[in-house]
């Protein structure tokens, strides 16, 4: 017996039949599942559809409930994508490529992904890359220059920054520290 069942609270964990309630219809089950998931955090339509499929909610019921949730504004993939880009870029320093990959895995349509990514301008992306490099510079001091370059550019690559941006930002940061960066950008640095 769970704590909820022992407590006798109004939302008892006992089955509906034991509480004198009729079984839930698939529509009621789908709505309850979606509302519970949306209470925790925003979700995309695809994430909710996947959750309903896992719980064996019939496809037509799932689509009907999800469409209704979209109509009333409880599901908004465009708003989700915009908030995701804003949050993940500022909190984790992710670049367009990484953000697009994350949104696609959450089932956001490609058009909405592109619209959300438009809020990131190249200058902001480069400033964020520089902030990431500045934080990592301290940790790499004392290492040989090529090792520092690989670590710094590799860190940016893992966050979705392109080779050109990564090398430009790393070169500038190292030059400001007094490192010789004249030969930076040759073929040996194209493996990022």
Could you give a short description of this structure?
The chain has helices at 3-7, 26-40, 45-54, 59-71, 77-92, 96-105, 110-117, 122-140, 145-158, 163-176. By secondary structure, the protein is mostly helical. Helix 5 packs across helix 7 (110-117) and helix 9 (145-158) crosses helix 10.
Would you mind describing this structure in some detail?
Helix content is 65%, strand content 0%. It has ten helices and no strands. It has helices at 3-7, 26-40, 45-54, 59-71, 77-92, 96-105, 110-117, 122-140, 145-158, 163-176. Helix 2 (26-40) crosses helix 4 (59-71) and helix 9 (145-158) packs across helix 10 (163-176). It starts with a helix and ends in a 16-residue tail after the last helix. 27% of the residues are buried. The model is unreliable at 1-10 and 186-192 (pLDDT under 50).
């Amino acid at each position: 017996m769970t704590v909820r069942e022992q407590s006798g609270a109004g939302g008892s964990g006992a089955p509906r039949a034991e509480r004198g309630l009729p079984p839930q219809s698939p529509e009621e089950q789908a709505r309850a599942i979606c509302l519970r998931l949306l209470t925790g955090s925003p979700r995309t339509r695809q994430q909710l559809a996947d959750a309903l499929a896992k719980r064996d909610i019939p496809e037509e019921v799932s689509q009907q409930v999800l469409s209704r949730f979209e109509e009333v504004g409880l599901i908004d993939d465009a708003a989700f994508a915009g908030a995701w880009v804003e949050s993940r870029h500022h909190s984790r320093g992710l670049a367009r490529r990484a953000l697009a990959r994350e949104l696609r895995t959450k089932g956001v349509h490609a058009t909405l992904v592109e619209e959300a990514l438009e809020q990131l301008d190249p200058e902001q992306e480069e400033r964020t890359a520089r902030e990431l490099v500045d934080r990592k510079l301290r940790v790499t001091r004392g290492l040989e220059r090529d090792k520092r370059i690989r670590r710094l550019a590799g860190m940016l690559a893992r966050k979705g920054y392109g080779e050109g941006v990564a090398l430009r930002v790393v070169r500038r940061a190292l030059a400001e520290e007094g490192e010789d960066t004249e030969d930076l950008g040759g073929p040996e640095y194209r493996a990022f």
